[in-house]
């Protein structure tokens, strides 16, 4: 069944001029935050086509900043804090220790966020439904390393003891880091490990080379990459990212309120375990079936993935074609188990008569796990757009092309800035309808007039450095030289875009507030009259 895509690894032209210009990447990965930092997912049909194990080159990537350049020979991991025997281990030391190796599904808490963004913009970028992948990971149990550092198995782990993980990537708000409880770390059945191999080879730079945390059953965000520090403490991690990322806040809390009232520090809203989720991969978005191609007995096989968190097994996946009146039970594959737990996704499929699409307007899927958790019918918006797991809906359209009548399928969204999707259309319609009353939403638009100066691309290109930095966003030119030192996303983030059109990068990650702030740097419009019309 698995049809592995050939690994085509070259430096992508989009990485030239960024700090990641040394990392080979698969050209088919969809980039979600423009050129840099690198955040990507595979096209959903391509991901499923790989089968149960995702080739490393197509595994989704979530990097908050540039990838640190580390070497196996010089890298060290320090284990300190509340331990009787602090350690500093080299990679060779670590690779000599007993290891475990098993397949694990990784999933970013932001998987399916674009659907949330279509309801209302969250503070995150547009993940489609492929921020999920499965690889075979090999490494040393964390428990084993902690024992070497003097943590005893019979220690009375109080609730207040934690293990904090730190990466070497220094970001605008400090080092990336997070934590779990010591009790969790020491539980043999939880399989927590320090991994140095993926799919039988050393880690790739994007996945944490030379070493990263692996914590099965939970969101990817806690599996710190480029790991160099493990500390046993009485407090959870003090990394900014531990508090300001990977949380589901209640739906009535917006960014301003969250910051003003410190919602980030309320323990209830932190995410550990994944929730139950599923998606449809076949039919794919924009897949077409001509009526002429099927007879009264032809069949179509629906396919997709499902997963849950905390080692909970997927027990059923159901499909409805009549808005939830009846549910069809699908077949499940690849129920991988380890010590009675499931750390992996499950593929599902369901054969239906092709003509049943004709009477239906929507295919909808929901999964159940062994705790009888299932997916909610409707989406509940949250500020970070995380853990979206509402029923996955694919619309069915009957379209006439001349003499031909076809069925065309439409997914809710397409990853990143890619157009298409019924939620995207709905969103655009709503925006159009609310535009006259609400024009200044795009503050920059309201400011420009025909009298404003015009600059050609050639002119903008000259202003490409720290002392003189212009950028183009949505055909408007901004002089953001003064803003460089105070940019919340760091100076490099602006400088790698100096003198260029970075609409995609900017729009992917900035809030409405940031957009309003940008307007103050507006100096004129892009003169693109000399560009050939497409
Ligand atoms: N040091 C470090 N670790 C990190 C991150 C990061 O930016 N820096 N991103 C996290 C997030 S949010 C996710 S979802 C996973 C993604 O792992 P992957 O890129 O190997 O798929 O890594 C996590 N670990
Ligand atoms: Mo993530």
TrEMBL record:
Domain of life of the organism encoding this protein: Eukaryota
Keyword Cell division attributed: no
Biased segments, Low complexity type: 434-447
Chain spans, region Disordered: 430-459
Major enzyme class: oxidoreductase
Example GO molecular function: sulfite oxidase activity
Biased composition (Basic and acidic residues): 448-459
Required cofactor(s): FAD; Mo-molybdopterin; heme
InterPro entries: Cyt_B5-like_heme/steroid-bd, Cyt_B5-like_heme/steroid_sf, Cyt_B5_heme-BS, Ig_E-set, MoCF_OxRdtse_dimer, Mopterin_OxRdtase_euk, OxRdtase_Mopterin-bd_dom, OxRdtase_Mopterin-bd_sf
Stretches assigned to the Cytochrome b5 heme-binding domain: 452-527
Record's keyword terms, sorted: Disulfide bond, FAD, Flavoprotein, Heme, Iron, Metal-binding, Molybdenum, Nitrate assimilation, Oxidoreductase
GO process annotations (BP): nitrate assimilation; sulfur compound metabolic process
Subunit structure: Homodimer.
The family this protein is said to belong to: Belongs to the nitrate reductase family.
The protein's role, per its UniProt record: Nitrate reductase is a key enzyme involved in the first step of nitrate assimilation in plants, fungi and bacteria.
The protein's name in its UniProt record: Nitrate reductase [NADPH]
Organism: Rhizophagus irregularis
Lineage: Eukaryota, Fungi, Fungi incertae sedis, Mucoromycota, Glomeromycotina
